[in-house]
Amino acid sequence: MNNILYTRKEKISDILFSVLGNRDAISFIFLDCPPKKKIAENLTIKEGSFLIFDEFFEQISEYLDGKRKNFDIKTKLLIGTKFERTVWKKVADIPYGQVTTYGELAYSLGNRRLARAVGQALGKNPLPVIIPCHRVVASSGKPGGFTAGIPLKLHLLKIEGVKYAQ
What we know:
Blueprint: E1 3-12, E2 15-21, E3 26-31, E4 43-47, H1 51-64, H2 82-92, E5 100-101, H3 102-108, H4 115-123, E6 136-137, H5 150-159
Parallel strand pairs: 1-4, 5-6
Antiparallel strand pairs: 1-2, 2-3
Helix pairs in contact: 3-4
């Protein structure tokens, strides 16, 4: 069976957001890049828009303006191993304005040696900002990685008032 997702792009605060989903939920967010040609098996992408997309863009605009700390958009994960989904769930619980390290996150999952695997799982996060992987930093205090680039990660952390080593 072929799943159909619809996409809408919008530039807010000089950041290009590409959102994929359907009338019920958002499933993917791409920052400063178009959606990947092949995201998942049996997935067709078409141009379109639903009310939930309007709600997402309104909420992301409020977040970027420092007026929103939490999102109440319905999401649906279409990808991810059990481990990746566990990591994403843990990251979703990191409060606004706070950070944790890859090692601390791995430790909370039961094994500090999984820090690299945690980083790899975050690199596959389909819902950045909603699942705030930008709040995970290196143990040195430096920003660590971010799929959309370190400057954007630093910008998101700055919006949240996070101080970090450079």
